[in-house]
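Margin note from the TA: students keep mixing up input and output lines. Inputs are the sequences; the output is the structure of the whole complex. Example:
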Amino acid sequence: MKYFDELKRSMDWLARDPRILFLGQAVECPGTAMTNTLKDVPRERLLEMPVDEELQMGMTTGLALDGSVPVSLFPRWNFLLLATNQLVGHLDKISVMSNGGFTPKAIIRTSIGSQRPLHPSHQHVGDYTDAFRLMCQSVEVIRLDEPEQIFPAYEKALLREDGRSTLIVEWGDYYSEK
Amino acid sequence: MPITNLTPDDLVRFEEDIASEFNLGKIRAPVHLYYGCEQSMIEVFSQVAASDWVMCSWRSHYQCLLKGVPPEQIKAEIVAGHSITLCFPEYRIFSSAIVTGSLPIATGVALGIKRRGGHEKVWCFLGEMTAETGLAHECIKYATNFDLPIHFVVEDNGKSVCTDTRAAWNQPVLSWEKTAHPKVTYYQYETKYPHAGAGMRVQF
């Protein structure tokens, strides 16, 4: 299967778990390339958020503490930077802060912004995968370079029992190229 | 029915004990002590149920005591160096040592409770400087507009570390000071302790 098809298959599979809630910008309405991967997800499992990355990331952790498995969408790495405090300083540290008592499971989706056919300028095409791997002690960062990596990554993120959350990085250009 | 029968004197004595231990060099980590807000805190906790969540900042000893965590268990965590981020999952207490850190997490917990039809409530404590931040306003706005089961308690001791909050914002009356918001309680208090520590220079 192609890159986009694997992403859509993964989202459809995730949505079968009643704990899953997709949240972010352009999840209920059109707006980003990621939106199309959710087009067959029931609407009641989609939560359109205000454009407020730190609020969204913190609420993602809170939803996970309450027992949901939130899938939190940040369409570009550059946008996720705005949520770094909640991702690196909170979701990633909450288990050690609580002596292993709090183990929220969240799935974070982000993307390296596409550069073709339109280049959206340098504020939209960052790839901070390696930097966040260095910053995160608990959250596992997985970059999806090939289509065959996609479903196993999301499957692992949902089924893992090690108390860790997962940050999954997609390539915007590969939606149409691989 | 309050979770505990703790009195203001009980709370003060707990902090004085921690202050003493800190000044003796027995706690090799920052402590942030409460004083002067005992009655206000007890009144807030008269509405808090055991099943509710309590989300705090770096200053949280009173909340832990009033939520029912045994004092010796709290003290053990403090002596172990965890005062700044006291978390007791079995009592549904979370604390963050970062300004605004617990607020969106608290909002998310409240959203989860509402979506599944739960009856618990979230109580989120924040200082007056935190309450002036954009993220605080965003969380309160979101929680209000979606009528989430959460209540914010703004505790005003006038200072953020040593910075005068009103002077720094050039704002004589703070945002929540003279408002009657259904999801916000605001109170002022005057503490005898510094931001961190217990007032003595400790040589570790």
